[in-house]
């Protein structure tokens, strides 16, 4: 059975037209799913009984089951969802009251196969890719949670594909989910309000550039030379820094968008003054922004963040060398919801 949340608006219309229903019925179903956030066919009140029966007999609806949640003092919420096959994924809601932003960080895979040295997600390896419906349904679930009975009020303003997994390793399902999330007849979240984070899959970065969809790109860098990055991020052995930066520059040229480089600062690993100078030299002349992220605790990996003095010094070196840089605001760390902490944990 097809999942309705696997289908974009035009595909929904085509499906129901082929079954003998008027085209507007497909539009109504799309609106029920994404303007109203319904999770059952019987909730689609203006759909005739005959059509609801047809849907029940021929389609299914992705419907993540929430099995745990944790809320931090800063308002961050971490969700643990169960998929239909019993696998689990985590996602996060991030509120920014001062700016009025409501952001969600969602997953694209069950686990991760890249094995970055600082990230909890990869500890158990990769189980499988998420379907388009499973990716989209995370956004719907977070939207329903923050808006209660009045769906989309307040509306999610930003979606970041920075949860479990490597988004670009699930390229086709990801990009179809992006299309559905972006549709103005549905969730209507702008392309410029979505960001894809990648560890550096060069062919897929080039492919993303060719779509020219104006979606944001964040690249997990974490080291300014190949020797160190090979140790921290095994993907660098396949696509080294020269290849990665060449792909990023093509992306910038094609889209006109600035790229973010994420740099997790790990105590006595990648936080030395020499490395800050190397990083500034590596990125000089590239239309980019560096997001410094003090490492979040992952007991299984033994990674620790530097002391504040070291963090400040690293920041100041980049700033002094003309690199646009910010220090990421820490959110959700105490509930293991911050960068590098997501995993399939039922505790």
UniProtKB/TrEMBL annotation:
Note describing how the cofactor binds: Binds 1 [4Fe-4S] cluster. The cluster is coordinated with 3 cysteines and an exchangeable S-adenosyl-L-methionine.
Xref: PROSITE patterns: RADICAL_SAM (PS51918)
GO molecular function terms attached to this record: 4 iron, 4 sulfur cluster binding; metal ion binding; rRNA (adenine(2503)-C2-)-methyltransferase activity; rRNA binding; tRNA (adenine(37)-C2)-methyltransferase activity; tRNA binding
Subcellular location: Cytoplasm
Keyword Magnesium attributed: no
SUPFAM superfamilies cross-referenced by the UniProt entry: Radical SAM enzymes (SSF102114)
Highest taxon of the lineage: Bacteria
Residue ranges of domain Radical SAM core in the record: 98-334
EC number of the protein: 2.1.1.192
Binding site for [4Fe-4S] cluster: 112, 116, 119
GO cellular component: cytoplasm
Binding site for S-adenosyl-L-methionine: 165-166, 197, 220-222, 296
Reactions catalysed according to its record: adenosine(37) in tRNA + 2 reduced [2Fe-2S]-[ferredoxin] + 2 S-adenosyl-L-methionine = 2-methyladenosine(37) in tRNA + 5'-deoxyadenosine + L-methionine + 2 oxidized [2Fe-2S]-[ferredoxin] + S-adenosyl-L-homocysteine; adenosine(2503) in 23S rRNA + 2 reduced [2Fe-2S]-[ferredoxin] + 2 S-adenosyl-L-methionine = 2-methyladenosine(2503) in 23S rRNA + 5'-deoxyadenosine + L-methionine + 2 oxidized [2Fe-2S]-[ferredoxin] + S-adenosyl-L-homocysteine
Any single biological process term in GO: rRNA base methylation
Pfam families (alphabetical): Radical_SAM, RlmN_N
Major localisation: cytoplasm
Residues at the catalytic site: 90 (proton acceptor), 339 (s-methylcysteine intermediate)
Cofactor(s) annotated in UniProt: [4Fe-4S] cluster
Record's miscellaneous remark: Reaction proceeds by a ping-pong mechanism involving intermediate methylation of a conserved cysteine residue.
Primary role: Specifically methylates position 2 of adenine 2503 in 23S rRNA and position 2 of adenine 37 in tRNAs.
HAMAP family in the record: RNA_methyltr_RlmN
Entry's family note: Belongs to the radical SAM superfamily. RlmN family.
Protein name according to UniProt: Probable dual-specificity RNA methyltransferase RlmN
Lineage start: Bacteria, Bacillati, Bacillota, Clostridia, Halanaerobiales
Gene encoding the protein: rlmN
């Amino acid at each position: 059975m097809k999942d309705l949340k696997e289908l974009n608006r035009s595909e929904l219309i085509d499906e129901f037209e082929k079954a003998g229903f008027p085209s507007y019925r497909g539009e109504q179903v799309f609106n029920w799913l994404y303007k109203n956030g319904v999770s059952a066919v019987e909730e689609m009140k203006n759909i005739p009984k005959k059509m609801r029966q047809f849907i029940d007999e021929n389609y299914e609806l992705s419907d993540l089951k929430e099995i745990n949640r944790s809320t931090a003092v800063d308002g961050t919420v971490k969700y643990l969802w169960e998929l239909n096959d019993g696998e689990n994924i985590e996602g996060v809601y991030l509120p920014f009251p001062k700016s009025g932003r409501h952001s969600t960080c969602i997953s694209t895979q069950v686990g991760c196969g890249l094995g970055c040295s600082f990230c909890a997600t990869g500890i158990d390896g990769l189980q499988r890719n998420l379907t388009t419906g499973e990716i989209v349904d995370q956004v719907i679930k977070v939207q329903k949670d923050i808006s209660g009975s009045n769906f989309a009020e307040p509306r999610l303003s930003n979606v970041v594909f920075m949860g479990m997994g490597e988004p670009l390793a699930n390229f086709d399902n990801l990009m179809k989910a992006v299309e559905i999330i972006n549709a103005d007849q549905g969730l209507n979240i702008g392309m410029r309000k979505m960001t894809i984070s990648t560890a550096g899959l060069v062919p897929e970065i080039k492919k993303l550039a060719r779509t020219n969809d104006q979606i944001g790109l964040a690249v997990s860098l974490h080291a300014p030379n190949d020797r160190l990055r090979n140790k921290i991020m095994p993907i660098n052995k396949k696509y080294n820094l020269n290849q990665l930066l060449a792909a990023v520059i093509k992306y910038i040229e094609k889209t006109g968008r600035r790229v973010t480089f994420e740099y997790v600062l790990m105590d006595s690993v990648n936080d030395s003054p020499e490395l800050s100078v190397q990083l500034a030299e590596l990125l000089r002349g590239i239309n980019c922004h560096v997001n410094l992220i003090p490492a979040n605790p992952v007991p299984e990996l033994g990674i620790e963040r530097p002391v504040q003095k070291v963090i400040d010094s690293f920041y100041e070196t980049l700033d002094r060398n003309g690199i646009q840089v910010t220090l990421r605001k820490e959110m959700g760390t105490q509930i293991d919801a911050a960068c590098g902490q997501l995993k399939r944990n039922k505790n």
